[in-house]
Amino acid sequence: MDKALYVAMTGARSTLQAQGTVSHNLANADTAGFKAALANTRAYRVEGPGHASRIDALHVDQGFDSRVGAQRVTGNPLDVSLRPDRWLSVQSPDGGEAYTRAGNLSLTPNGQLVTSGGHPLLDEQGQPIALPPHQALDIGHDGTVSIIPLGEGPQTMAVVGRIRVVDATPDRLTRGLDGLMRNTTPEQPLAQAAGDVMTTGTLEGSNVDAAGALVQMIQLQRQFEMQVKLIQRGDDNAQAANSLLRLGG
What we know:
InterPro entries: Flag_bb_rod_N (IPR001444), Flagellar_FlgE/F/G (IPR020013), Flg_bb/hook_C_dom (IPR010930), FlgE/F/G-like (IPR037925), LlgE_F_G-like_D1 (IPR053967). By secondary structure, the chain is of the alpha+beta class.
């Protein structure tokens, strides 16, 4: 009975953690470039003195869904949609390098190119991109940023930098608590992606399946209720067993 209660308790804990993951995905169903978090549960034998008879239901973080989200044409020159396995390089809050596919960019009042979360975009040298005053801006498919200086004609368009876009497969990245991706092997820096890496005037949406996530949430709720009932039934049985022992004494 004790083992049954332990399995049910750890299962209920894992179900609550899985519900948190699904809730996080649903909250970001409209976030540009968001990749759905994946989670699962596996059995884990608890080691210790004596016979290893305890089986723990363990919540496992399985990374993220790398599928490309739906594309939406916006016509905004600051909206970019990246090719598969391509990631924008940004400066993280701790000053390091991190990665995102959120392509809804903007300019700060001082001309710094940032993501919707306010993270500065980095250039090929790993420095934040800041643009001088201009009257027109163009981001090329290879990530080059060109401007027409303020008060000048179209013939003066010049390249002022290139956005650092890295080539990284899902196994090379892990998501941090701030929502940004980071290199799983920092000693092996990610390489600058060559050729066409993005489309401008288009935005990649979240790849969260909202309907599927809602169904999963309902399933997890029912699973949690079943596990709680099992815990209650086990407690009732334990009390009944104790009563019989007292009567027998």
